[in-house]
Amino acid sequence: MSNNKSKLSNLPFLAPCRSVSATAPLRWLHKGVTDTRRAPLASLIYGALMASLLMFTTLAAWQLGSAWIMLMLLCSLVFAVPLACIGTYAISAQLERGLTVSLRETLKASVKSYIGTELVYALVMLVVFLVWARASSMASIFLPHTGSYEFAEMAGYLSILALVSLIFLSIIFAASVFSLPMIMHRDVDAITAIVTSINAVMRNKVTMLVWGILIALALIAGILTGGLALIFLLPSIGHASWHGYLETIDAEQFPRHSIGVTSLKRPVNDTDDDKPR
């Protein structure tokens, strides 16, 4: 018991990160598309799940026209998305270890192996969403009290609302982009993973801006196709995020999981010796 406590106390507060080039996200995306093609069945099942959730949320908000209903749907997504993301990372982890991709292993990774840490992560994200909702409601003080609510009169309110949304989307992006892959890869708590992710984003601002733009373009393209393209794009982004994490975060100081896909070391590769295995 004392040895375990000593080991935990010697762990750093966050994992160090590497500086990566602004073009790195293109490389990640290429690897993500490759993983989707190498494991099409498992990847597209997760893609269909994530695309269905996203399109349902979008259509419900459009039809019902309620910001609060939209918020409730988004909050429910907060708990579903980590499960789906962990599944895509598990697929990539199996591929890079030369294992046969197993839906059973990916489901075990999503639902059983890391569920406690995932729930803590989801609760943190839920708090952020609730604060976002409160900040958005406070922006209503900029609504015009008279007039016909034409664009010229609504410009101030819409600008403030857009600014608030951009700030909170940036916070969520920074907190989540590398935290979920780290939870899958190493035996860490959710807070350590989130802080590590934020630190890596802040130290690679241009690179992560490019990655965020690529994700946004993929989501827009997917929604414009009625969600069909999302079935392929979302798992590809998930796989790409895994490769981006391995290239950016050095998590060697943290213990490996005792069970699951990532309890096994990645095979040695001369081209990626600097990546955590």
A few lines on this structure:
It contains eleven helices and no strands.
Key attributes of the depicted protein:
11 helices; 277 residues; mainly alpha
What does this structure look like?
- This protein is mainly alpha-helical and 277 residues long.
- It has one domain (25-266).
- Helix content is 72%, strand content 0%.
Task: Explain the layout of strands and helices.
Blueprint: H1 2-9, H2 24-38, H3 40-64, H4 67-96, H5 103-113, H6 115-138, H7 151-176, H8 179-185, H9 190-203, H10 205-224, H11 230-248
The termini sit apart by 27 Å
The number of distinct helices, counting runs of at least 4 residues, comes to 11
> What's the helix-strand series?
HHHHHHHHHHH
Number of strands: 0
Structural class: mainly alpha
Tally the structural domains.
1
**What is the oligomeric state here?**
single chain
- The fraction of residues assigned to DSSP E strands is under 5%
Determine the fraction of residues in helical runs and give it as a percent range. Answer: over 70%
Describe the global form. Answer: globular
Largest sheet: none
Ranges where pLDDT stays below 50 over 5 or more residues in a row are 1-7
- Give the integer mean of the pLDDT values: 82
- Rg is 20 Å
